[in-house]
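Example record

One chain of 267 residues, shown exactly as stored in the release files.
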Amino acid sequence: MNHLLRGHAPISDKVWGVLDEEARERLAPALAARKLVDFSGPHGWEYSATTLGRTTAMQSGPSDGVTGRQRRILPLTELRADFELSRDELRDADRGAEDADLEPLDKAARQIALAENVAVFHGWADAAITGIGDATPHEALQLPESPDDYRRPVARAVEHLLCDGITGPYGLALGREQYRRVVEAAEHGGYPLLDHLRKILEGPIVWAPGVKGGVVLSLRGGDFLFESGQDLSLGYDSHDAEVVRLYLEESFSFRVATPEAAVVLKP
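Predicted structure tokens for this chain:
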């Protein structure tokens, strides 16, 4: 991790440990895509491209009687969220303060987790990433206004997948508003809606900041592929007498191998 330049920061090993732990605690709940798609890596900062196993024919060869084909790859994309921390707060953390103000780090963690979710579920054209929702050929299903009625579109989504020969178990990524509604909802008998949906899916329901509505997808494996170069890490940028400038960074690619293995639920 030499490129992160952590050794140049005016931060002790103890405080780096505090910052790393804080980042992990904030990132883990929000990294929804990683809970539902295949994750490969991390392969390191130098890892630059995902092999697609395909080629493109060259229009001409270097000499008569010779043809050429060029390997096709998907370049990894780097995500970075910058933030600043007060040097006074960092000194207090070094003294053992349990209430050091690390909100800028928390905000950066939320931002980069949301960005990763958006790229996976809704795509990122500039990075040549096609999201799950853009790739699926299935018509999107409407989520009802009442969360008690979410069972119907979720069951229909599972049926669509089964009709295409896509086996389960299945997972459900829900945007923040939809997840909140499901958690709060209960049937007349008091049986939580979450349990009903899990029985339909035979898999998890994941809180997914950045997702618009929801996505039902197969968890059988091999359909949605996330390849990590450098996993999310804290790095050092610069500092002055008042603040230390840091960042969260990762590199990854994402591709959809089986577009039919997901159904979008519209909000």
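Notes: Residues 145 and 267 are 8 Å apart (CA to CA).
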